[in-house]
């Protein structure tokens, strides 16, 4: 009896291991060569070499141009001066006249008369009642 259980246990473990190995193989990227790109032969004059050696310190010092101050090739344009504010002296000081505002009397607010009756009687809002089943239990 114990042998039968151990055979079943080993068989189940083997099937689970096969599923795990198969899933691992499916998750690996697939590398397929591109025969069209492999067969392409570029023309002899189009091959470009991207390898470039860094210049030595002597070459850098020889190639570096001395720093010179900037020189204007054309004279600066003159402006009209309209954009700047210039202080102008007035010909004569402005004349100031003091004008007094007219005297105003405070206006009295009109009194509201108390009304005993409202023009339109107010009605109570009617809300029908419903129970949990959705049936109307109380009409307006």
Provide a concise account of the structure shown.
With 140 residues, the chain is mainly alpha-helical.
Could you describe the 3D structure shown?
By secondary structure, this protein is mainly α. Helix content is 26%, strand content 4%. It contains 3 helices and 2 strands. It has helices at 2-26, 35-38, 57-63, and strands at residues 129-130, 136-138. A two-stranded antiparallel ribbon has the order 1-2. A hairpin with a 5-residue loop joins strand 1 and strand 2 (136-138). The longest helix is centred in the N-terminal third of the chain and has 25 residues, at 2-26. The protein is flat and about 120 Å long. The mean pLDDT is 78.
List the helices and strands and how they pair.
Layout (H helix, E strand, L loop, with lengths): L1 H25 L8 H4 L18 H7 L65 E2 L5 E3 L2
Antiparallel strand pairs: 1-2
Number of helices: 3
What's the main sheet like? 2 strands, antiparallel
Round the mean pLDDT to the nearest integer and report it. Answer: 78
- By DSSP, the count of extended strands is 2
Question: Rg to the nearest angstrom?
Answer: 51 Å
């Amino acid at each position: 009896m114990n042998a039968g259980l151990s055979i079943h246990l080993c068989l189940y473990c083997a099937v689970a291991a096969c599923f795990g190995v198969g899933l691992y193989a499916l998750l690996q990227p697939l590398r397929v060569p591109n025969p069209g790109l492999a067969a392409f032969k570029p023309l002899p004059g189009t091959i470009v070499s991207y390898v470039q050696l860094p210049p030595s310190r002597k070459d850098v010092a020889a190639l570096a141009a001395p720093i010179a101050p900037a020189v204007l090739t054309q004279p600066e344009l003159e402006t009209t001066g309209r954009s700047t504010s210039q202080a102008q002296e007035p010909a004569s000081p402005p004349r100031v006249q003091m004008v007094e505002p007219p005297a105003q009397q405070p206006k009295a607010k009109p009194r509201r008369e108390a009304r005993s009756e409202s023009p339109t009687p107010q009605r109570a809002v009617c809300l029908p009642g419903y129970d949990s089943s959705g049936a109307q239990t109380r009409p307006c």
